[in-house]
C-alpha cells in the first residue's frame, strides 16, 4: 500500500490541531496565528501558480492557432512552417511542440518525406 506524502499544508494542519488541543496561552495563540498565516501564504502561492499556468496555456493556444493558420492542405516541413511564420521569437522547438499538439488534437496530419539531400523529415498539413 502506498503511503500518502505529507505536504506543508498537512504539517501545518497537524500543528494547528495540536495547538488547539492545548490550553491557549499568549504563546500558543501567537503560534496559531503564525500557522494560519503560513497556510494563507500557501493558498496565495497556489492561486498565483494557477494564474501563471493559465497564462502559459493561453499563450500556447495563441501560438498553436498561429501555427495552424500557416498550415495548408499540402505537406510542409517544420523549416517551411518556421520560415512562413517569420518571427525571430518563435523557435523550432516551439513550432514542433505546437504541431505535435495539433496532431494529437486531430487538427493536423504528420508524415515522413524525403528531402532533396536524401534525409527523411517530418511534414505536416491540415487534417
Rounded to an integer in angstroms, the radius of gyration calculated over CA atoms is 26 Å
Using DSSP, what is the number of strands?
A: 3
Task: Return the average pLDDT rounded to an integer.
Answer: 86
Q: Would you state the CATH class?
A: Mainly Alpha
Helices, by number, come to 4
Second-tier CATH architecture = Orthogonal Bundle
| N- and C-termini, Cα separation | 45 Å
Structural write-up:
By secondary structure, this protein is α+β, with helices and mostly antiparallel strands. It has a single domain, classed as Orthogonal Bundle (Arc Repressor Mutant, subunit A). The protein is built from four helices and three strands, in the order ααβααββ. The protein has a three-stranded antiparallel β-sheet with strand order 1-3-2. A hairpin with a 5-residue loop joins strand 2 and strand 3. Helix 1 runs antiparallel to helix 2. The protein is rod-shaped, with a radius of gyration of 26 Å. The mean pLDDT is 86.
